[in-house]
Amino acid sequence: MGVSATISLSLLSLGPKSKVKCYNGYFVNGYIFHTEEYGHGRKTYNNSVCIKGSTSSEFEVDYYGRLEEVMELQYHSEQNRVFLFK
Hints:
Blueprint: H1 3-13, E1 21-23, E2 25-28, E3 31-34, H2 36-39, E4 48-51, E5 63-66, E6 70-74, E7 81-85
Antiparallel strand pairs: 1-6, 2-3, 4-5, 6-7
């Protein structure tokens, strides 16, 4: 394991900062997602998400839902950010 990997792991082990940023939407992989509240009353918007899932059995379980919140957790470094969809 390199020095930068060790530093990143030690920063992650401290947990996220106590401040959380919230957004009305998020742009990823060519798609724009808006929260349901932000898109209310607009002609077009995308507030639905689908997560293709799989289980240990032979059946795959997909999750479909509406986007309520987009949150950003930051882990004591600008490079260590995680975006969560609720």
